[in-house]
Design brief:
Elements lengths: L5 E5 L3 E6 L3 E7 L2 E6 L2 E7 H5 L9 E4 L2 E2 L2 E2 L2 H15 L10 E6 L5 H13 L4 E6 H8 L9 E7 L4 E7 L2 E8 L3 H16 L1 E2 L2 H11 L9 E8 L5 E7 H23 L4 H10 L1 E4 L8 H9 L3 E3 L6 H10 L2 H12 L1
Parallel strand pairs: 1-9, 9-10, 11-17, 17-18
Antiparallel strand pairs: 1-2, 2-3, 4-5, 4-6, 7-8, 11-12, 12-13, 14-15, 15-16
Length: 338
């Protein structure tokens, strides 16, 4: 049997593709721009180029994010988007019949939502698929030993959802996916800015605010100047936002994440809790770059908390490690199906 040669993380905010033997070959926004020309809808661009068009298009161009809260929301556009991404990463001679793909997914996906991923793969002529939970990939990406008998807790904070997994021997023994992520934080920052400054900010600006000055540290003095439109006049206006201004918003999101973690921990046996108390909680995902996450969650959960060195790469690197360990990949895939 041919080996799996691609791993795809189809996220709400970003799609990441790992090619066996090459590493991470693509990381771009999960975004597609569709243009209507002579009553026919065609793909104008995808990924980074499509995201640049957000808020800047005329009526003939629609910019769509087809993955919502970790789930395929618009199947047709998700197919077209991923098709274009696969074209970008396919090395010379890498034909469609040879595509065998690991798809990474949130642990909270339903059977129907997983079937959407399989249907997507079939529509793109992908020969074989393996669906692996993000938490399992993340733990492997953090180089926890393959046959480690201990239980570990992984919190993957992404753009659309937070995926929480308690894992033992590559099995999720407790898990939950909650609709808290970077996009929800951005939306809450937007509401705050409108109320406090009567200014409308674009999506890319909101993301920049979160990534630049988002913090859970009460002594953080970071600030950023941004430009938006006044609500009433629609005139350009520059405002200065401080980290402490949006601290309550960031804290509100992480309080919900903490509550979800606590609920899962309350379902665990004393043996599992003993392991987690010993090894702590591992944090990964793009939103894990917010300052002070480890201290904040450690205080609220009363457990050690560790943020991965490169938290936005943990999941895809773990999937890449699985591509390099086909026996482990096949075993995990077979056990998940069982």
């Amino acid at each position: 049997m041919s080996a799996f040669n691609l791993a795809v993380e189809l996220g709400t905010s970003n799609t990441v593709i790992y090619v066996a033997g090459l590493g991470v070959a693509l990381k771009e926004p999960s975004c597609i721009a569709i243009e209507t020309i002579n009553n026919k809808r065609v793909v104008k661009c995808v990924g980074s180029e499509a995201k640049k068009l957000v808020g800047k298009t005329n009526n003939s161009i629609e910019v769509v994010f087809p993955i919502v809260e970790g789930v395929i929301y618009n199947f047709q556009l998700a197919k077209l988007m991923l098709k274009e991404f696969l074209k970008k990463v396919a090395p010379t001679g890498f034909g469609k019949p040879k595509r065998r793909v690991v798809f990474i997914h949130a642990c909270g996906l339903t059977k129907e939502e997983k079937n959407k991923i399989r249907d997507l793969a079939y529509a793109l002529n992908i020969t074989s698929t393996a669906l692996i939970p993000a938490g399992v990939c993340a733990l492997i990406g953090m180089e926890v030993e393959e046959n480690d008998p201990n239980s570990h807790m992984v919190v993957n904070i992404g753009g659309g959802v937070t995926d929480i997994s308690i894992i033992n021997n590559n099995h999720i023994i407790r898990g939950a996916t909650i609709n808290i992520g970077g996009l929800q934080i951005d939306a809450n920052i937007s509401d705050f800015i409108k109320q406090e400054y009567q200014v409308i900010l674009g999506d890319n600006t909101l993301e920049t605010i979160k990534n630049s000055i988002g913090s859970l540290l009460t002594n953080d003095i970071s600030a950023i100047n941004v430009v938006g439109l006044e609500l009433d006049t629609k005139r350009r206006k520059e405002i200065r936002i401080f980290s402490q201004d949006i601290l309550p918003i960031i804290a509100g999101a992480f309080n919900k994440i903490s509550e979800a973690c606590e609920a899962l921990l309350n379902m665990c046996s004393s043996e599992v809790l003993s392991d987690i108390n010993k090894f702590g909680i591992y944090i990964c995902g793009g939103v894990a770059n917010i300052s002070g996450i480890d201290k904040y969650l450690s205080k609220t959960l009363n457990l050690p908390v560790y943020v991965d060195v490169e938290p936005d790469s943990s999941v895809i690197m773990g999937a890449g490690n699985l591509l390099n360990n086909q026996s482990l990949l096949l075993r995990i895939s077979k056990e998940l199906k069982g």
